[in-house]
Amino acid sequence: MTSRRLLCSLLRSASRRSVSNPRLCSPLPMRRPFPCTYFISRDAQYSISAAASTAPSQPPPAKVAGRGKITDEFSGAGAIGQVCQVIGAVVDVRFDEGLPPILTVLEVMDHSIRLVHEVAQHLGENMVRTIAMDGTEGLVRGQPVPVGKATLGRIINVIGEPIDDKGELKTYHFLPIHREAPAFVDQATEQQILLTGIKAVDLLAPYQRGGKIGLFGGAGVGKTVRIMELINNVAKAHGGFSVFAGVGERTREGNDFKCALVYGQMNEPPGARARVGLTGLTVAEYFRDAEGQDVLLFINNIFRFTQANSEVSALLGRIPSAVGYQPILATDLGGLQERITTTKKGSITSVQAIYVSADDLTDPAPVTTFAHLDATTVLSRQKVLQNYKNLQDIIAILGMDELSEDDKLTVARARKIQRFLSQPFHVAEAFTGAPGKYVELKASITSFQGVLDGKYDDLPEQSFYMVGGIEEVIAKADKNAKESAA
């Protein structure tokens, strides 16, 4: 017992000596020398306690008073730390008095370029480990983001800074990106169908307004094209506000009227890609809670969000779980998905693209995402109805003449329905030359019911391919007949 007390006393004395001696502030040697002494300021408004607040607020300005020290007007006390270690995107910071909470923003002072980090771990009693929102040599992204109507029609990064060369955002409303999900008593329970104008979706697998919609698929199966078509059809017909969050994707898509664009591109570090989804969600939450709007939130791609958090987890030294993902995969996805909901004030309808690695739907990332979604669409390279492959082979081998008259009629109508489910998209006009079509739900039901009832048995099946309504089928059949007669 005496030896244990003596050991604790020696450890406490060694800790005091390391705090008083700046040369012992780092447990490991620095990887690169600093050109000057860096100080870290901590703003209490960005702490986790303020993150739970839903009321928009403007971050108070900090006054610089000699050698970069910050006077925090919000808390009335300055909080200065010193950078002790930089290893890539991981920065360790020592504080002499107190530690900032997890998810707090730390900003580097006495430097020509703004550097912002997010606290990820506490190391002992006087040191924190942070993740940089960008490269430690250049501009770094921050946490509180501007919200409001000033963001509509603008392209912003993870901290709300405009990147579209259209000047600064003129807004005084700011919200932290780390917030609590709405309580169950505040959520609405009404269910309405979201009309998309796409025949295959509205007729076979309709989406729910105010819910979470997932588009699953591997590389190159059309997830981004489907999202772009939904932006064109739903957002324009919806007439409300839309937010597009590009998480770890290319910045080639996402143009729309009354739409706020939030991008964290492929070339961004994992810290920015892991937080840009929360930034876009925060902008949508403001329109829902403060403006009372029905907001459309498009996220491309949720898998990049998971991938970025996996990289951050590896940087923090956490033990990976199945298939190399972070051990808190369900927590990371739940923190984002549970905030996307319909409340009594407004709603957020989210359309999310989920990349399926190697077309494996049993991968932990899509499996975890499945549990949060209200509607799913799986885009596959193979036909879903594989059970009917043998029947197709029989028809191909024996020919249509071997079938009975009733079977011939059934096969002919089935082929017409299969082709009638196709539809030209607006986003593909530049490639196909065919104008896009928006088909109302009532027209789709009437048309398909007419095909099943045999009203259009006299029309050739090639007339049903890549058209909108049934009127276009009739017009296309007449045109082909005239061309054949000529």
Automatic annotation (TrEMBL):
Query: Partners and quaternary state?
Result: F-type ATPases have 2 components, CF(1) - the catalytic core - and CF(0) - the membrane proton channel. CF(1) and CF(0) have multiple subunits.
Question: SUPFAM superfamilies recorded for this chain?
Answer: C-terminal domain of alpha and beta subunits of F1 ATP synthase (SSF47917), N-terminal domain of alpha and beta subunits of F1 ATP synthase (SSF50615), P-loop containing nucleoside triphosphate hydrolases (SSF52540)
Q: Which reaction does it catalyse?
A: ATP + H2O + 4 H(+)(in) = ADP + phosphate + 5 H(+)(out)
Could you tell me what this protein is called?
ATP synthase subunit beta
This chain's source organism reads Gossypium mustelinum (Cotton)
The record, for InterPro entries, names: AAA+_ATPase, ATP_synt_F1_beta_sf, ATP_synth_F1_beta_su, ATP_synth_F1_bsu, ATPase_alpha/beta_chains, ATPase_F1/V1/A1_a/bsu_N, ATPase_F1/V1/A1_a/bsu_N_sf, ATPase_F1/V1/A1_a/bsu_nucl-bd
Keyword Glycoprotein attributed: no
Annotated compartments: Mitochondrion inner membrane
Q: Does the keyword ATP-binding apply?
A: yes
Q: Which Gene Ontology cellular-component terms appear in the entry?
A: mitochondrial inner membrane; proton-transporting ATP synthase complex
Task: State which residue ranges cross the membrane.
Answer: none
Among the GO molecular function terms of this UniProt record, one is: ATP hydrolysis activity
| Superkingdom, taxonomy of origin | Eukaryota
> Which BP terms does GO give this entry?
proton motive force-driven mitochondrial ATP synthesis
The UniProt family comment states:
Belongs to the ATPase alpha/beta chains family.
Query: In the Enzyme Commission scheme, what number(s) does this protein have?
Result: 7.1.2.2
**Which key words tag this protein in UniProt?**
ATP synthesis, ATP-binding, CF(1), Hydrogen ion transport, Ion transport, Membrane, Mitochondrion, Mitochondrion inner membrane, Nucleotide-binding, Transit peptide, Translocase, Transport
**What is this protein's function?**
Mitochondrial membrane ATP synthase (F(1)F(0) ATP synthase or Complex V) produces ATP from ADP in the presence of a proton gradient across the membrane which is generated by electron transport complexes of the respiratory chain. F-type ATPases consist of two structural domains, F(1) - containing the extramembraneous catalytic core, and F(0) - containing the membrane proton channel, linked together by a central stalk and a peripheral stalk. During catalysis, ATP synthesis in the catalytic domain of F(1) is coupled via a rotary mechanism of the central stalk subunits to proton translocation.
> Where does the record place the AAA+ ATPase domain?
209-425
